[in-house]
Amino acid sequence: MRKVAIVGVGLIKWGELWEKSLRQIAAEAIFECLEDAGTDRIDAMTIGNMSGGLFNGQEHLSSLIPDFMGLKNIPAMRIESACASGGMAVRTAYLEVASGLSDFAVAVGVEKMTDISGQEATYALATAADQDHEAFHGVTFPGLYAMMAKAHMDRYGTTREDLSSVVIKNHKNGSLNPNAQFPFEITGDQVLRSPMVADPLRLLDCSPISDGAAAVMLTTLEEAEKLKKQPVLISGIGHATDSLALSSRNDILKMEAVEQSASKALEMAGKSIEDIDFAEVHDCFSIAEIMILEALGVVPPGEGGKASSEGLTALNGKFPVNPSGGLKSKGHPVGATGVAQICEAVAQLKGEAGKRQLKNVKAGLTQNMGGSAGSSVVHILEVI
Amino acid sequence: MQVPRYWREIPKRYRLEASECINCHNVIFPEKLSCPQCSSKAFKTIRLSGKGKLVTHTIIRIAPEGFNDQVPYAMGIIKMEEGPQIMAQITDCDPDKLKTGDPMIYQFRRIRDDGNTGVIMYAYKFVPDVGI
Predict the structure, then answer these.
(1) Which of A35, A115, A313, B58 is the most exposed place for a label (fewest CB within 10 A)?
(2) Quick check: is A83 catalytic?
């Protein structure tokens, strides 16, 4: 397999983008990415999108997006793995280039979620859970993560303050990110005053509903050199699945798909978690970031909450997590999230992250998750 | 919710029918086509006793469509005596008093209606097992 590098990123500001369509935001992110890469060559296009069908009544994004860009004859494909669709699109683009089938593959992630009501969007998101055995009984995604949070508090003594520390930290980081949907700080008091959604999770423990898109251009190291671009190497990829229904896991506090996707990616990169300088992870709920820290092996099981409260994951901590603001502050247009995580890692590694720039970072990890951790994809990125 | 889709699930929802692996006796609910423990594909159908213990729970305060009239309602994961875990609503109790480890027992209950003319959907819910 050939080595694969990222030579361009494109990211638009996320939010409630009422004046823009699904095709518009996807195309804007790709054009920005092409400009950043300094080429308009696209040998293949992968499109991470969870549910154009339910959010927009629009499938067939593989034709829709190149067509709106004014392009024909593009081998484009839509990749779906719920909220991990974006990460999977990057993985698929990686395979295009690594295999030699394509020299330039662009991966775009896009979701346009605000064309329907909040309740309809909640329904669309819940299709990432087991429809027959979870959603049928009236559970929501906040409900599933709330059950994990309750179990984590019972078993490990994780506190309300631990959960809030994740939210406060991610908003603090997001306040430094001009592309974030909610670029402002919030306090622990504000979290406690926000309405209860599913005990113990409150509204401000949950990532928002967002419109957004992000794109990355992948190519070989030789082509990157010709473009005179500083490449960021994708040195490891791991991908794994677990049971769709949370109740089917022997231990609901063990995110095996995250553990396995991370260990595969690290093994491929020839690294251990101690060699990684920072991570962008899938904090769809405050408890998720705590459990992911444990699954990645950053801290032992049960210590994720305490580590967050003690500042391990802050911008100036020993292991910064979600310098972008994470899903919580940056926004969570589901199909776009996994691609945007990689855009942030590239910005950090190239020293282009502005006010939230981390110091001396050489290797970063991104972790993108589907549903209640029924799927997970991890990328390791390095400057060379 | 289409009628055939609802109808297909009736053995599990009405009777708690589970699969017992003939090779390693692992009990699976809902069914899978091979045993996650030993990979055997030979199963027999058994009925769960309906008794178990509460593993974790939450109280849903913002409901999905079709459940708005029921909030707040408790949902939990119950570990059944035979081994598998089931996610279900927990009813006939004060949700604030539920505790991890509480004994639970199956009840056959109405889940929701599909509009004014659609199917009335039934399935299992759980209640605290007070040993009556």
Answers:
(1) A35
(2) yes
DSSP reduced 3-state for A166:
helix
Closest CA to A282 of A86, A138, A103: A86
- Residue where the block lists tokens 């030699």: A100
The B-side interface with A (CB below 8 A) comprises: 5, 9, 30, 55-67, 70, 73, 75-77, 84-89, 100, 111-112, 121, 123
Q: What is the pLDDT of residues B42-91, one digit of tens each?
A: 999 999 999 999 999 999 999 988 899 999 999 999 999 999 999 999 99
Tokens of A9: 């990123």
CA-to-CA distance for B10 and B121, rounded, in angstroms?
A: 10
CA distance B109 to chain A (A): 11
B73 within 8 A of B64, measured Cβ to Cβ: no
* Residue numbers in B near A118 (CB within 8 A): none
**pLDDT tens figures, A65-108:** 999 999 999 999 999 999 999 999 999 999 999 999 999 999 99
**Coil, strand or helix at A373:** coil
What distance lies between CA B42 and its chain's CA centroid? 23
Contact A133 B87 (CB under 8 A): yes
Helix (H, G, I), strand (E, B) or coil at A106: strand
Beta strand residue intervals within chain A, DSSP E: 4-11, 44-48, 76-79, 104-112, 196-198, 201-202, 211-220, 232-241, 278-280, 363-370, 375-383
What's the whole-number mean pLDDT along residues A236-257?
A: 97
Q: Are A325 and A197 in contact (CB under 8 A)?
A: no
Whether A284 is catalytic: no
ipTM: 0.96
Q: Which DSSP symbol is given to A357?
A: P
Catalytic residue among A33, A83, A206, A284: A83
User: Would you state the torsion angle of the CA atoms of residues A335, A54, A18, A69, taken in this order, to the nearest 10 degrees?
Assistant: 60
**Distance separating alpha carbons of residues A64 and A55, to the nearest angstrom:** 15
Q: How far is CA A244 from CA A144, A146, A247, B32, in A?
A: 12, 17, 9, 12
Single-letter residue type at A75:
P
- Residues in chain B closer than 8 A to A134 (CB atoms): 87
A331-341 in b/e form (b: 16+ CB < 10 A) is: bbbbbbbbbbb
